[in-house]
Design goal:
The complex is a heterotrimer of chains A (460), B (270) and C (432). Chain A has 460 residues and is mainly α. Chain A has helices spanning 2-28, 40-81, 87-102, 104-108, 112-150, 157-197, 200-205, 212-217, 229-260, 263-278, 281-302, 312-336, 340-348, 353-382, 385-390, 408-416, 425-458, and strands at residues 209-210, 225-226. Chain A has a two-stranded antiparallel ribbon. Chain A is flat, with a radius of gyration of 31 Å. Chain B is α/β, with parallel strands linked by helices. In chain B, 34% of the residues lie in helices and 25% in strands. Chain B has a six-stranded mixed beta sheet with strand order 6-7-8-3-9-10, sandwiched between helices. Chain B has a four-stranded antiparallel beta sheet with strand order 2-1-4-5, with helices on one face. In chain B, α4 crosses α6 (169-181). The radius of gyration of chain B is 18 Å and the shape is globular. With 432 residues, chain C is mostly helical. The chains are: A mainly alpha (460), B alpha/beta (270), C mainly alpha (432). Chains in contact: A-B, A-C, B-C. Chains A and C meet through α6, α9, α10, α11 and α12 of A and α2, α11, α12, α13 and α14 of C. The structure holds adenosine-5'-triphosphate and magnesium ion. The site of adenosine-5'-triphosphate (ATP) has 12 residues of chain B, from β2 and α1.
């Protein structure tokens, strides 16, 4: 609530500053805007920025730093009470105080010492917030003062305002980069912590995956098995099945639409295919788990096969359906980029349409098609909901599509869901898996996007 | 000789007398949707001759040329009326298969369009789809012959397996000509084959056309009067979708009957 | 040399009828494969939709049973206080049970009552409570009200399950007979399932609804939109209109394209590590979910924004610059308004994508079981796709139906968003 009042005050001052700036700018030239270097509105905006920016930047920095400082102080008092406390245990203890402070139920059953610490914690937070608000308001006032002093007829308010806007835009464009950096740093950082428990070699090449054991014995790392090969193999198996569905169907659909179909057919078939891409994956997951998996199992049993009820086949099949539109629309673009002159060349030799497609168009479009398939593979590897709902958790090292396997994404979800302990190798393993997933899909995407772009340029 | 079991009369085993009529167009007209791009063309083409089609841009030369091997079929909304007889059979009759027709009437385009495959495979493509060869040695023979005939063999014999798209423009165009003759068609259509080439490459192609005339009937569209004069025996002048006049090249160039022809040749229209 | 024809060439193309026929057969086959591929894909779509609708449509109605409740004063307000507190706290369960017993056949022992009570939903007591609170003067009278049946009876009425005494069914024959008698008495009807649209999640299928998830979705997407629209437009404008062509902007461009293809679950990990751990945002809260989704769709929106800006012809920029506008004014006054429909279309499509996304939200804990409709950006809540995920896991048959119905609700939202995008595009489509 306090924060809300602070924000409202700052915004109101900003609006006032704008109007005041305008009026003042007109005032200094006696109401004749043509004597101003910049339009009065720019002077208003100039003042508004002076009012808003310093305070906003300060608050942002404060909010980023404050929790760390408060934690440090609390950690200090904890160590005083319990000198032996260090490292992870200390972190945990501070975390506990934090969660007690927001969880009234747990608080009511906490010990008196802890309650005292929680009170201190909350007190510190209160002081922090008050200090922040005060300083922010002072900054608002100072900004107003400085801004209004600098308003003068020849002041280049427009340039100043535009410079701020430019830098804001640069900042926004950089967010994409920051996101990537954030992803890489957080994955790397947490994965490093995981690799303190489990060596990367064991992780990447181990054949046994059973992270739950570590949980039970309460012995960090030593007894859990974190050999991810079965998980990778399961991912590959399901991806392969989905590609076996998506590539032929998607590619043939694209070929038919680009080369054979009438405009009219295309105009309704293409959107229909795209609907397949727009259906949320959780819907596919439900469909896979409730309709396809039992169907596959029963069909398998009917012909005497031993099919698991969470077979890789069912998940892969449904994932393949989901991927069809990716393959088809990307390949469609790629095939349409093949110049007509090549088709003419083949037809003029007396080739039939299919001969032209198979021997001229597809070879010409090949790099582009490969690129789109790679993008589809990356999509399949990273797909989560379908496999979470329809594939199993059992890390079987098998190539049998009728068996249950698990995937990287399923493991990430099951390791992290509902668990807030960030110190056990079990949760950290999710980040190690995430790192592998990110690196693999990134490589696939970079290669694919480069290949497709090169290909486009070739025919531009 | 191929089994004589096809709708079009088979190729004569020995070239007939020079005056045999290979193709004759009767009242040919073309519509692109509602637009009438070509009207009422009547014209005969004799065997073993080079016939050039000239006229200002947009007058319908390419359109007419594409009628002869039914490439217009591939353009949606394009309609052809009238008839074109090849060895006495109307190529527009319902039972004629365009694929078969195009195997016998080859085409070379204005812009070289080699397939993105090796030089060898570019040539081998036609013989392969038409089932002309059964062994690798035979194919090698065909490729070498086609490249030699197109005057390209010496330049590329050491890099047959490199992509055809890596050749120079002039080489690419000769590759396309080699590709067209490798199926041994009876008629070759060329749509401004030299417009993308420098004078030396042009001269080479022109020389080639003259040699090919002994085996094929060649119809060539060109914007160069000199080229028409150099390579063709007969010339046809088109203007705004009409065939204005047609006759032996020297007559057209020296004593045109229609004043529009004279005006075009001397550079006053077009 | 022309005359030295190799025999293969001299023979000419093989145009025998047989061979041509074969080639055309291959042609027809190829064309057929293409058509078959498209048909299979569309068939899959049809099966998917038919399955969902076929499973889900019945969740929009619900079985109700008429009961005559005796609003017994001695049970509700024996001390005659009449204040809200008393009326709220009263033991309505006992009130309802007493009234239900009147419906049971004669001779039902206490031990057998369980079977009979479990024909009705536990929610009947809340219905009675609401009735009394709304109108305390009813106390002492007997009122006929329609209460929800238990989900098993609902399933029975909809024909999904049967009854048996051997334990193979959740309902036994006694319950079935009782139900049949209620039907015969005209006490059973099928009514519109309002609960489904007005309640949040519940362990009891008949009391579960999607409103909580829908509100959670709205709040989450509101956060996403507020972040993504200004940032996306600013980034697109900068990259398209101002950015110099250098290594740095190349890097940003490559980075954005790649980011658009990063698996969504990775964004979930980012959310866990950075938003929850580092910034200490509350778990399961719309604010954290909204930020994660914003990062997820930002690349898509920047890409869409750039192509909308690219479609504005340079002549417009030149005209504005020509009358002395600054570059920013040119963009702000002319280019951006013209590109806006395109940007908005891209944004809506991006938001539709965010609406269907569930994996990253699972990671940051938006799988909470939330029985109250969330009202704040920092309270635990869930979103529609995650609600679907949760219900899909529930073993009861009645939840299967509701999962499908929730999917239908989600799809309706998606269709509406896409329709708006299409209409927007149609309306503002411009040929320069
Ligand atoms: N695919 C098409 N669709 C519609 N109209 C066409 C098409 N191709 C050609 N035309 C029209 O038909 C007319 C004749 O075109 P054509 O290409 O035959 O001219 P041309 O004589 O070959 O000209 P140029 O010397 O420039 O190649 C032109 O008016 C042209 O616009
Ligand atoms: Mg032309």
């Amino acid at each position: 609530m306090n924060n809300f009042i602070l924000i409202a005050t700052v915004l109101a001052s900003t609006a006032l500053a704008y109007h005041y700036g305008r009026r003042r700018a007109l005032g200094v030239v006696g109401g004749k805007p043509r004597d101003l270097h910049s339009l009065p509105g720019y002077h208003g905006a100039y003042m508004a920025l002076w009012c808003l920016l310093p305070a906003a930047i300060f608050v942002a920095i404060w909010i980023a730093i404050e929790p760390t400082v408060v934690r440090q102080i609390i950690a200090g008092s904890l160590v005083q009470a319990q000198p032996g406390l260090t490292g992870n245990a200390l972190d945990l203890a501070v975390n506990e105080i934090h969660s007690l402070s927001i969880n009234a139920f747990a608080y009511s059953s906490a010990s008196a010492e802890k309650k005292a610490l929680v009170a201190r914690y909350q007190e510190l937070q209160g002081i922090g917030t008050a200090a922040m608000a005060t300083i922010a308001l002072v900054l608002v006032a100072a900004g107003l003062f400085y801004g209004s002093k600098s308003i003068a007829p020849r002041m280049r308010a427009r340039q100043a305002v535009e410079r701020v806007i430019m830098w804001t835009m640069v900042g926004c464009a950089t967010i994409a980069i920051l996101t990537t950096i954030g992803i890489i740093m957080s994955l790397l950082f947490e994965a490093m912590r995981f690799f303190q428990f489990v060596s990367p070699i064991d992780f990447l090449f181990g054949l046994q995956w059973s992270p739950q054991i570590a949980m039970r014995s309460d012995q960090v790392g030593s007894s859990g098995a974190f050999g991810a090969v079965p998980v990778f193999a399961g991912t590959l198996l399901i991806t392969a099945i989905s590609m076996a569905v998506a590539v032929p169907i998607g590619l043939m659909s694209a070929i038919y639409m680009a080369e054979y179909s009438s405009k009219k057919f295309r105009s309704w078939a293409k959107p229909l295919l795209e609907i397949l891409a727009g259906v949320p994956t959780v819907v596919y997951g439900f469909f896979a788990a409730l309709t396809v998996a039992p169907f596959v199992r029963d069909t398998g049993h009917a012909i005497g096969l031993n099919v698991a009820s969470e077979s890789a086949l069912a998940a892969g099949l449904v994932m393949g359906i989901m991927i069809i539109p990716f393959v088809s629309s990307l390949s469609d673009d790629v095939i349409n980029a093949v110049p007509q002159s090549l088709r003419d060349g083949a037809y003029a030799m007396g080739a039939t349409k299919s001969e032209t497609i198979r021997q001229v168009i597809i070879p010409a479009a090949f790099p582009g098609i490969v690129g789109s398939i790679m993008l589809a593979v990356s999509r399949a590897i990273g797909e989560t909901m379908i496999v979470v709902m329809a594939a199993g958790m059992a890390a079987n090292l098998t190539a049998n599509p009728f068996a249950a396997v698990t995937t990287v994404t399923v493991q990430i979800v099951t390791l992290l869901i509902g668990d807030q302990e960030f110190d056990s190798p079990k949760t950290l393993a999710a980040f190690a898996l995430g790192l592998v997933l990110f690196v693999v899909t990134l490589i696939l995407n970079i290669i694919a996007l480069t290949v497709v772009r090169r290909y486009r340029e070739q025919y531009d | 000789m191929a089994e004589i079991n096809v709708t079009l009369p088979p190729r004569e085993s020995t070239p007939a007398a020079a005056s045999k009529i290979k193709l004759s167009a009767r009242n040919v007209g073309v519509f692109y949707g509602a637009a009438n791009a070509l009207r009422d063309v009547n014209m005969d083409f004799e065997e073993n001759q080079v016939i050039s089609l000239i006229g200002p841009s947009g007058c319908g030369k390419s359109t007419f040329l594409r009628c002869i091997n039914r490439m217009n079929d591939t353009i949606p909304g394009c309609r052809v009326v009238g008839s074109i007889n090849m060895d006495g059979t109307n190529i527009y009759s319902a039972d004629i298969d365009p694929v078969e027709l195009r195997a016998r009437v080859g085409m070379v385009f204005q812009k070289p369009n080699p397939f993105p495959k090796s030089i060898y495979d570019n040539i081998a493509y036609g013989p392969r789809i038409h089932g002309m060869v059964s062994t690798k040695t035979e194919m090698d023979e065909v490729v070498e012959w086609a490249l030699r005939s197109a005057g390209l063999w010496e330049e590329v014999k050491d890099r047959l397996l490199q992509p055809g798209t890596g050749l120079s423009g002039g080489q690419q165009q000769r590759l396309c000509i080699a590709r067209a003759i490798a199926v041994h068609p009876e008629v070759i259509l060329m749509d401004e084959p030299c417009s993308a080439l420098d004078p030396i490459a042009t001269a080479k192609v022109e020389e080639l056309i003259d040699e090919l005339r002994q085996t094929f009937t060649i119809i060539i569209v060109t914007h160069s009067m000199q080229q028409a004069a150099r390579v063709s025996q007969r010339t046809a002048f088109f203007h705004m979708g009409n065939l204005v006049e047609e006759g032996p090249t020297d007559v057209i160039f020296t004593k045109p009957k229609d004043q529009r022809t004279g005006a075009y040749i001397t550079g006053r229209i077009g | 040399m022309i005359n030295a024809l190799p025999t293969a060439v001299a023979r000419g193309p093989n145009l025998s009828k047989d061979r041509i026929k074969k080639r055309y057969a291959a042609e027809a086959r190829y064309k057929f494969y293409g058509l078959a591929a498209i048909s299979v894909a569309i068939l899959f779509l049809a099966i998917l939709l038919v399955t969902i609708v076929g499973k889900g449509y019945s969740a929009f109605v619900q079985t109700a049973i008429a009961i005559d409740v005796n609003l017994d004063k001695s049970l509700i307000d024996s001390d005659n206080k009449g204040d809200v507190e008393t009326l709220t706290q009263a033991d309505y369960r006992a009130v309802v049970r007493a009234s239900l017993r009147n419906l049971f056949p004669a001779g039902v022992t206490r031990g057998q009552e369980r079977d009979y009570f479990s024909v009705f939903s536990e929610s009947a007591q809340y219905d009675v409570q609401k009735l009394v609170l709304n109108n305390p003067s009813l106390i002492g009278t007997t009122q006929r009200i329609w209460v929800k049946s238990a989900p098993d009876i609902d399933m029975l009425r909809k024909g999904y399950v049967g009854a048996a005494d051997d334990g193979s069914q959740r309902l036994n024959l006694t319950q079935k007979a009782f139900y049949d008698k209620l039907v015969a008495d005209g006490r059973v009807r099928t009514q519109f399932n309002t609960t489904f649209f007005t309640a949040a999640d519940s362990r009891e299928a008949e009391q579960a609804g999607v409103l909580g998830a829908i509100m959670g979705t709205f709040m989450t997407l509101a956060v996403t939109l507020i972040l993504v629209l200004p940032i996306g437009i600013a980034a697109a404008v900068y990259l398209e209109e101002f950015a110099p062509k250098n290594r740095w902007t190349d890097l940003i461009e490559v980075n954005i394209n790649n980011l658009a293809a990063v698996p969504s679950i990775v964004f979930g990990l980012l959310g866990v590590a950075v938003l929850l751990q580092w910034f200490g945002m509350p778990r399961s809260a719309p604010i954290a979910g909204g930020v994660v989704l914003a990062l997820l769709v930002l690349p898509t929106i920047i890409i869409a924004g750039r192509s909308a800006l690219k479609a504005v012809p340079p002549s417009i920029r030149e005209a504005a610059l020509g009358v002395g506008a600054s570059r920013l004014q040119t963009i702000g006054h002319h280019v951006l308004p013209l590109a806006m429909p395109g940007i908005l279309t891209g944004t809506i499509i991006g938001m539709a994508h965010a609406l269907g996304e569930s994996a990253p939200l699972l990671m940051i804990g938006m799988v909470a079981f939330v029985v109250d409709v969330p009202t704040s950006l920092t309270h635990a809540s869930t979103v529609l796709p995650v609600q679907i995920f949760l219900w899909a896991d529930a073993p009861e048959r009645a939840f299967e139906e509701r999962t499908s119905a929730a999917i239908m609700v989600l799809l309706v939202f998606l269709i509406m968003m896409n329709l708006v995008a299409i209409l927007l595009r149609k309306k503002f489509e411009r040929r320069w």
